[in-house]
Amino acid sequence: MAGALGGTGGSGWTWRPVARDPLLARAFHSCTELRGRFYLVGGLLAGGAREPSSDMVVFDPAGGQAVRVGARGGPRRSHHDAALVGGRWLCVVGGWDGSRRLATVSALDTERGVWEAWTAAPGSCPPAGLSSHTCTHLSDRELRVAGREGGTRTQRRYGSIYTLRLDPGARTYCYKEEGYHTVSRSGHCAALLQSPGPHPGHQLLLFGGCDSAEPEVAGHWSHGKIKEEPPVAPCLMEQLARLVSSGQGSRQGPRGLRHHSCSVVGPFAVLFGGETLTRARDTICNDLYIYDTRKSPSLWFHFPCADHGLKRVGHRTCLWNDQLYLVGGFGEDGRTASPQVCILDLFI
């Protein structure tokens, strides 16, 4: 079991290692679940690396095995995001290629094992370049992209919101900038959650990536506009509900957190780790935050951890088979990539 337990009173949590493979050691990669496999694309293999990786590793959580996949033409990317389209195409959106920030789309045809560079459709209005942004799946062919555009010299003072429509048949993509903006964010996370209160629906919330502790709405949809998927982790949902019942909720979330992970588990957004902007030293975190939307107003629950070995930045969490998995990321020194895969264990 990995180090000391976090939590309060008689409750606690930890990340329990279940696999270890050097192929998994990377940070600022993407990790997408498809048919019981985790597809890891790109990332940085060590802190200070200038060139991101172009390889893809598939991890089997049931067997605990990782395999490098030799699909040709893989994109060299870090600080990107990825989304599954049509149950077949793994679309990598934007990111850093070692020399510039991109807004292009590369897609892995998982049936053929081939990477394809999709082309911009006529009328597409792409961002100036994306990195450390988020892509959220809204429908089978539509993503919502949120984040700061461009580099440090060219970026806007606000964050742009784009709808990205994907056409697997034509192998094209089309960006449309929405008519509203957010606070300038980079290294944030996004969570599509049911709206609390008397009017049911969904809202896309952005957490972190700037000095503010306040979540920000990057989209709102009335009931029925977004296909509501049934809970995929009933046991984990119940455990999270019991864990937050042991804590003290707050309207105030984590301030100045970036490059953390976020997974939606029913009415909960589960955030872990990241890098804080609030202090000059010991910036990499190992805190667990749970955002509970079951009642209005939504509340934050903070569960700290004493184990420095669990500090992570640039990592990913992935939900599968009623378990939340932690994959990759740099550790406490901000340079050494973790080769471990861990499962979140909750003790109530």
TrEMBL record:
<dbReference type="InterPro" id="IPR015915">
    <property type="entry name" value="Kelch-typ_b-propeller"/>
</dbReference>
<dbReference type="InterPro" id="IPR042941">
    <property type="entry name" value="KLDC9"/>
</dbReference>
<dbReference type="Pfam" id="PF24681">
    <property type="entry name" value="Kelch_KLHDC2_KLHL20_DRC7"/>
</dbReference>
<dbReference type="InterPro" id="IPR011043">
    <property type="entry name" value="Gal_Oxase/kelch_b-propeller"/>
</dbReference>
<protein>
    <submittedName>
        <fullName>Kelch domain-containing protein 9</fullName>
    </submittedName>
</protein>
<dbReference type="GO" id="GO:0030332">
    <property type="term" value="F:cyclin binding"/>
</dbReference>
